[in-house]
Design goal:
The chain is mainly α. The protein has helices at about 5-15, 25-30, 30-35, 65-85, 90-95, 95-100, 110-130, 140-150, 155-170, 220, 225-230, 240-249; strands at about 175-180, 185-190, 205-210. It binds manganese (III) ion.
Length: about 250
């Protein structure tokens, strides 16, 4: 069970990102609870979190129809199938989606693949909507800027490596910026709806990730995934990425 104090703090987060939460409370909370705060529900039935902006808000970079299909069909589909996968397992229904995917080995074998795919899809997309913003773009500031410079040499070098890893992901998947146990940032990519929090990837906390499934870019960019990855920086929400970095520690 989650202690009462966490539930209260988490509710503050659910109210909205604009609500000021004392920094000390953020650092004391487990990262999973922080991430979860914007996803709406910590137990089944898991809910489809609304986009934090209009469908057409990112239109210069990601077209409106792509956003509508991606959110209302793909993400909503993962959510529906995740709920179906845990139905009939009361113990699983009490867990957060992050807890489910971080402990795949502990799941009943009959539900494991469905939870891996759809729980991963749920967690990945809940993050993805938040780390984009119509007010995003530009160079990062704050702690993430310092950490990127420290671990990649420069923001440009980080961008190039992130784009290359995204382009090199064969088939569908995500490219990630992760933080390891020592606090060092690195880039990795995973197939399908896998997530770095899964044990086989080291159980690493994803600071940010870009969706390189064709459904994320094909209508506007067609086969040019590299163009999508390059343009995507225009909507990167560095405030949210900084928030995720802060709770990862
Ligand atoms: Mn997707």
């Amino acid at each position: 069970m989650i202690p009462q104090e966490l539930q209260i703090s988490r509710r503050q987060l659910i109210v909205g990102a604009a609500v000021a939460v004392p920094a000390i409370a953020l650092t004391r909370l487990p990262a999973q609870a922080q991430v979860f705060g914007k996803q709406g529900r910590d137990a089944a039935p898991y809910a489809v979190a609304p986009l934090p902006y209009a469908y057409d808000a990112l239109n210069d970079t990601i077209d409106t129809l792509t956003m509508r299909l991606h959110h209302d069909k793909h993400y909503a589909g993962y959510t529906k199938k995740l709920n179906a996968a845990v139905a009939g397992y009361p113990d699983l229904m009490k867990k957060t989606p992050q807890e489910l995917i971080a402990n795949l080995d502990a799941l009943p074998s009959g539900a494991r693949t469905a939870i891996r795919n759809n729980g991963g899809g749920y967690v990945n997309h809940a993050m993805f909507w938040q780390i984009m913003s119509p007010k995003g773009g530009g160079a990062p500031g704050g702690a993430i800027a310092t950490a990127i410079k420290r671990d990649f040499g420069s923001f440009q070098s980080f961008q190039t490596q992130f784009q290359t890893a995204g382009e090199n992901r064969f088939g569908s998947g995500f490219v990630w910026l992760v933080r390891d146990a020592k606090g060092k940032l690195s880039i990795m990519s995973t197939p399908n709806q896998d997530n770095p929090m899964m044990k086989e990837y080291g159980g690493l906390f994803p600071i940010m990730g870009n969706d390189v499934w064709e459904h994320a870019y094909y209508l506007k960019y067609n086969n040019r995934r590299g163009d999508y990855l390059k343009a995507w920086w225009n909507v990167a929400n560095w405030d949210e990425v900084n928030r995720r970095l802060a709770v990862a520690a």
